[in-house]
Amino acid sequence: MAKRKFHHIGVPTSEKREDSSYVKDGKVYVTDARSHPYNIEFLYFEQNSPMPEMVKTTAHIAFMVDSVDEELKGKAVVCEPFDANESLRVAFFRDGDALIEVMEQKQ
Q1: pTM above the 0.90 mark?
Q2: Which residues, listed in sequence order, are joined to residue 90 by a DSSP beta bridge?
Q3: I need a labelling partner for 31 at 20 to 30 A (CA). Which of 49, 63, 78, 88 fits?
Q4: pLDDT mean over 57-69
Q5: Per-position DSSP letters for 64-76, written without gaps between them
Q6: Using CA atoms, how far apart are residues 68 and 93, in angstroms rounded to an integer?
Q7: What helix, strand, coil percent values describe the chain, rounded to 5?
Q8: How confident is the model at residue 69 (pLDDT cuts 50, 70, 90)?
Q9: pLDDT beyond 90 at 4
Q10: Res 1 pLDDT > 70
Q11: Whole-Å CA distances, 93 to 14, 52, 79
């Protein structure tokens, strides 16, 4: 059985927050969920963001996992794995109408 640990809830927003960091490849500004009392990450997407529409418009729940690739097997992948930063690899998949992010700490 795969180990999953809740990490955050991601909420797309229409305004860029001052406490955001920029993810260049996704053209998105994100807040640090760990600094929010309820582990909420706010995401502000630039108009030309290459991220899938579902990721840009739908709240998601995120889990730390041992292997992003293993978690995606047999799933309806919305966004293929990519490096969010130098130490984190992420991907998104659908489960019905739910959007789920899986995150893997890179070695």
Answers
A1: yes
A2: 82, 103
A3: 78
A4: 97
A5: EES-HHHHHTTSE
A6: 11
A7: 10, 50, 40
A8: very high
A9: yes
A10: no
A11: 23, 11, 7
Overall size of the chain counted in residues: 107
| DSSP for residue 24 | T
| Amino acid found at 51 | M
Lookup result for tokens 């700490």: 105
The Cα–Cα gap between 10 and 13 comes to: 10
One-letter amino acid at 12 equals P
- Two structure tokens written together for 61: 């729940």
Closest C-alpha among 37, 46, 36, 49 to residue 14: 46
Domains of the chain, each with CATH number or no CATH: 4-105 (3.10.180.10)
Distance CA(80)–CA(89), nearest Å, equals: 10
**Token reading at 9:** 């809830």
Who wins on pLDDT, 93 or 25? 93
72 phi and psi, to 5 degrees? -80, -15
Ramachandran angles phi, psi of 34, nearest 5°? -70, -20
